[in-house]
Specification:
By secondary structure, this protein is an all-alpha fold. It has a domain at 24-80: F1FO ATP Synthase (Up-down Bundle). The protein is built from two helices and no strands. It has helices at residues 5-45, 50-80. Helix 1 (5-45) packs antiparallel against helix 2. The protein is rod-shaped. It starts with a helix and ends with a helix.
Length: 82
């Protein structure tokens, strides 16, 4: 039972998709946690600006999450197109 070229390519695509999603989720997770923590500190220091700080934090988190979504798209392409 020999492993042929098509099976190696499919196995490599599965491995690549897993690595892509694994590494692609680390950045947004750390970035969003850091942003939320800093926003909580800022709200604690200046509670009057809570609305503005929360809005700004959420916009920043949405931008940060886009890298995770790009990783998901690449992983799905590897799984279903390759």
């Amino acid at each position: 039972m020999a492993i042929e070229g098509a099976e190696i390519i499919k196995a490599s695509a599965f491995l690549g998709a897993g690595i892509c999603m694994g590494l692609g989720a680390i950045g947004p997770g750390v970035g969003e946690g850091y942003a939320a923590g800093r926003a909580c500190e800022a709200i604690g220091k200046n509670p009057k600006e809570a609305g503005l700080l929360t809005r700004t934090m959420l916009v920043g988190q949405a931008v940060t999450e886009s890298t995770g979504i790009y990783s998901l798209v690449i992983s799905l392409l590897l799984l279903f197109v390759v």
